[in-house]
Specification:
Elements (H helix, E strand, L loop, with lengths): L1 H6 L14 H13 L8 H21 L6 H23 L3 H10 L9 H8 L3 H18 L10 H15 L11 H9 L6 H9 L3
Helix pairs in contact: 2-3, 2-9, 3-8, 4-7, 8-10
Length: 206
């Protein structure tokens, strides 16, 4: 779940590509209207935020889908990192005049990169650029890459995010199958067989 936690930024992120659902929002609003007590002050706003969380979960599920196992993903990441380290070592073996000439040529590079970017690259040693990429790969391996046997639990993340949204709107969050939160999760994740067990595991931290 680290990837989702690291890239989800609530209202500050762009929702342009999210698969939002008018039907889901309408179902939620109709359900809120049917509550005898505990109705949200802003049913449309609550429905919109829940729909956005659902849509983001669906988008991540599509974008993170891969045929590689967690072990295979780590192997590819480690190969990428090690290749960068090897390239960095090879940079040191270049004759200084050759390295300087190639770096200076970035100022007048006529390829596909924007000219401004080329000029900035010309001011940085190639070894430093490679070291940055290598460090980013190391950080990703340590903090975000899936462990062998891991798999993304988008359903647990979604329950946790909907719980946060509900608390912001003063909706009581709990595991009771008679509570309002349980009803919301039934609409948000209709394909789950045991919503109460999913909610219990999500609220317990996964």
């Amino acid at each position: 779940m680290n990837i989702m936690k690291s890239c989800w930024r609530g209202e500050s992120m762009s929702y342009g590509a999210l698969p939002l659902s008018k039907t889901r929002r309408e179902q939620l609003e109709q359900m809120f209207e049917g509550w005898r007590s505990g109705r949200p002050d802003d049913p449309a706003g609550l429905a919109d935020e829940i729909d956005r969380a659902c849509a983001y979960s669906e988008l991540c599920r599509q974008e993170e889908a891969t045929n590689l196992t967690a072990r295979e993903q780590r192997i590819e990441l480690e190969r990428y990192r090690d290749t960068l380290a090897k390239a960095r070592r090879l940079c040191k073996s270049l004759p200084p005049q050759v390295a300087d000439a190639m770096q200076s040529s970035a100022m007048v590079y006529q390829g596909t990169l924007p000219p401004e970017l080329c000029r900035q690259i010309a001011l940085v040693e190639p070894e430093e650029l490679l070291l940055l990429l290598e460090s980013l790969a190391d950080t990703y391996l340590e903090q975000h890459a899936p462990r062998p046997g891991d798999r993304q639990r988008f359903d647990l993340w979604l329950v946790q995010e909907v719980a946060r949204v509900c608390r912001d709107h003063c909706i009581i969050v709990g595991t009771s199958d008679r509570g309002h939160f349980h009803q919301i999760i039934e609409v948000a994740i209709p394909t789950v067989k045991d919503h109460r067990d999913l909610i219990r595991r999500a609220l317990a931290g996964g």
